[in-house]
Amino acid sequence: MRYWKPTRVPPNIDVSVLRLGHRLVRDERISTHIGLVSRAFGAKRLILTGADDHTADSIERVRDRWGGTFEVSYTKKWRDVVTNWEGIVVHLTMYGEALNDVLEKIRKDLGQQRNKPLLLVIGAEKVPREIYAMANYNVAIGSQPHSEVAALAVFLDRLFMGGELYSTFDKAKLRIKPSARAKEVEIANEN
Amino acid sequence: MRYWKPTRVPPNIDVSVLRLGHRLVRDERISTHIGLVSRAFGAKRLILTGADDHTADSIERVRDRWGGTFEVSYTKKWRDVVTNWEGIVVHLTMYGEALNDVLEKIRKDLGQQRNKPLLLVIGAEKVPREIYAMANYNVAIGSQPHSEVAALAVFLDRLFMGGELYSTFDKAKLRIKPSARAKEVEIANEN
To answer: What is the pTM of this model?
Structure first.
């Protein structure tokens, strides 16, 4: 059996993540995971819906220590964000088309007309039904109930072909030295 | 750039997941995600530490409706589970060796001596330091803070080479028909 080798340099795709159906308090922790995964796996920004809470703070605190330019914002008008998106909209849901079948089509669409930006829509337990019609693609990461955090991570890992794990983040105050046995953290720029 | 094609039939690897450091109530939801991801992405069982709560119930309810034989158990002696493991122990942590470098080594180790079983150790925010020495491998899915749910999903997706997304689950009462636009669920064996 031949094994896949991750690409050293991820394809240059501009990804934003839109988190739908975030419920205050109850979803804070999962939405924070969504934000951190977005950042760590190569997306550029997260758009949260609903009222402002601690989610953005937690994510921005991580960015300020670990580097990079990941952005978090809130919108009260997610429909406008989706409708006005000048690029491809992909909704991750367990009811969609199989990732294994549809990823190359998405990749082709993104490549046409000078690299369109991708909006990844991530629902919570309930999503407004209309999003199924508004998205260009509804994509299932396996047709089993699991986790929107997992779905997001696997989608981005596949999209960026593993290359996102080689990324570095500018202006990091903290940086880990990968190690077989120890926790090694470099502290830089601490001022 | 050449793109990776998922394998149709995942490599036959017996994976158990050990969830460390689960704190009651606070971690229930994340631990439930850990369990559902384990099941959906091809692991066979989840071992929870700490006191019994609703986590096992939630996961078993999903298994009973969506099929398969995924097992959940509790242990008060996780050190014994790790020490007595007759196979390979992989600890997922942001401080470990890079997944992109180490996965093929793990694959080789597993293949030697008639397919050893794999124990995947997933910590919560705090993990006992000794696990770094007890594991055969400490593996980082990117050296950035993100989510243990994401780390688990990406590790399993890479390990099973995407083939786990083709898996079916026996005795399912509910089954989804993948669809570009609709939520289509087949109800079978409902009795």
So the answer is: 0.95
